[in-house]
Amino acid sequence: MTCLAHAGSGTLRVGSQVLVVGDSAARVVELLGKPAYRSHAKPASGSHGRRRKGGHRSSSAGGEQWQYRQGRRIVTIVVADGKVASIRDDGS
Description:
- InterPro entries: DUF2845.
- The chain is mostly beta strands.
- It has one domain (3-44, 54-89): Beta-lactamase Inhibitory Protein, Chain:B, domain 1 (2-Layer Sandwich), CATH 3.30.1450.
- Helices cover 9% and strands 41% of the residues.
- β5 (64-70) and β6 (73-80) form a beta hairpin.
């Protein structure tokens, strides 16, 4: 399976499918499977873990980083509040 992240666009092509920021965590697992590694994402600078109305942390509060190895590339999906918050291709 081939993955290709488009710089700055918040999209990841997985075969003939496309993952975009805002998709559900379930969609990530459907397209990519279980991550090779999970960790807590660092909060975005200046967010200081702000809470939204209702006591839930905002997406900028961090979430989880899910890492997938695709050949020599590492694709990192940040999932916050059950949704894709960002997509990063750390590969060469």
